[in-house]
Design a protein that fits this description.
Length: 328
């Protein structure tokens, strides 16, 4: 397919875990993804479906150059620092990178008349759930600086949309997991903090055991319950969101989860089955700020964008992540 300029999409954080999967989905849908990443937490090897432009979202001159060069029809914004624990010990780093960085990006986009924006938000904007499953109308009340940075960006976007300067979709991901089903890319965080890759590192002998933070929660087996969504399903939601905002003026918030929760124990048991390995566990104290359960109501995105998850069965999530881990 011939690519015109209007098919060009800037993907900030395109060298990261979810951004790189979105780049693959964009290329498959006939777009040219331009990954803009400072490589602080991403990998140049993950940029395979379009150019890599090295740069920082805090650098407005470099962003201006980028907008002039590519004249994208939209920006998908994945670039962020995303470790909750680090955000608690170094909040200003997070406010600077995630809030000032996004402010700089938005300001530069508007100067170049680019006003379609897809934002990587998170279920962390809700804080402790008042009811489950979580719908988009649940109050926004984050309980850590990372969640605060995402909620602040959402507020900034609402204010810009109110005066029609921007049209945005904010996708509130639950727990992203799994790897590209063709094995071309996968999760590679340093340090790794996500449960599934950690459990698989124990299965492959890279770690001695997995730590479970609390087994006395008010959940069926006492361990925390989360909603795991396959990264390829997330990437597909970005394509549907892009097509929606390219054709419509409005702005929307959408949850992205499977509407089903797995406990930490269930993930470990399923991982033992998939890998055929023993997985040692150590029970630790609860971590402050970990709600017992987080489960999405994703009916809004299903209804409005006709999105549905295709790869988020827990066995598919674990086996794609295991294949990636064994081969890389
Ligand atoms: N992984 C999850 O489960 C999850 C859940 C909810 C929301 N999110 C959000 O999704 C997005 C992507 O997450 P991920 O897991 O792929 O993280 P990641 O760390 O793999 O990717 C983020 C990318 O952004 C880049 N980056 C960071 N700061 C930058 C800056 N100032 N300028 C340019 N590039 C910068 C990093 O180098 C990295 O490549 C993040 O915004 C994160 O907050 C992730």
């Amino acid at each position: 397919m011939e690519l015109s300029e209007s098919k060009t999409i800037i993907v900030t954080g395109g060298a990261g875990y979810i951004g790189s999967h979105a780049c693959k989905a964009l290329a498959n849908a006939g777009y040219l993804p331009v990954a803009y990443d400072n490589l602080s937490r991403g990998h140049d090897w993950a940029v395979k479906w379009g150019p890599l432009e090295k740069g920082d979202i805090l650098d407005s001159d470099r962003l201006s150059e980028l907008m002039k060069k590519y004249q994208p029809s939209a920006v998908m914004h994945f670039a962020a620092l995303a470790y909750v624990g680090e955000s608690v010990t170094n909040p200003l780093l997070y406010y600077h990178n995630n809030v000032v960085g996004t402010y700089t990006l938005l300001r530069t986009m508007l100067r170049h008349n680019i006003n379609k924006f897809i934002f990587s938000s998170t279920c962390a904007v809700y804080g402790d759930p008042q009811e489950l499953p979580l719908t988009e109308s649940h109050r926004r009340s984050p309980v850590n600086p990372y969640g605060n940075t995402k909620a602040m960006v959402e507020t900034m976007l609402e204010d810009l949309a109110a005066i029609e300067q921007i049209s945005f979709i904010s996708l509130r991901y639950f727990n992203a997991a799994g790897a590209d089903t063709e094995g071309e890319i996968g999760e590679s965080h340093e340090p790794e903090t996500h449960l599934i890759p950690l459990v698989l590192e124990v299965a492959s002998g890279k770690r001695p055991h997995i730590e479970i933070f609390g087994n006395d929660y008010d959940t069926p087996d006492g361990t925390c319950v989360r909603d795991y969504i396959h990264v390829t399903d997330l990437a597909d939601a970005h394509i549907k969101s892009l097509e929606y905002i390219l054709d419509n003026k409005g702005s929307e918030f959408f949850n992205l989860g499977t509407e089903y929760g797995y406990s930490v124990n269930e993930i470990i048991e399923n991982a033992k089955h998939i890998t055929n390995k023993e997985i040692d566990v150590k029970i630790k104290a609860r971590r402050p700020g970990d709600p017992p359960a987080l489960i999405a109501d994703s009916s809004k995105i299903k209804k409005i964008l006709n999105w549905k998850s295709k790869y988020s069965n827990i066995n598919q999530i674990l086996s794609s992540a295991w294949e990636w881990q064994k081969n890389n």
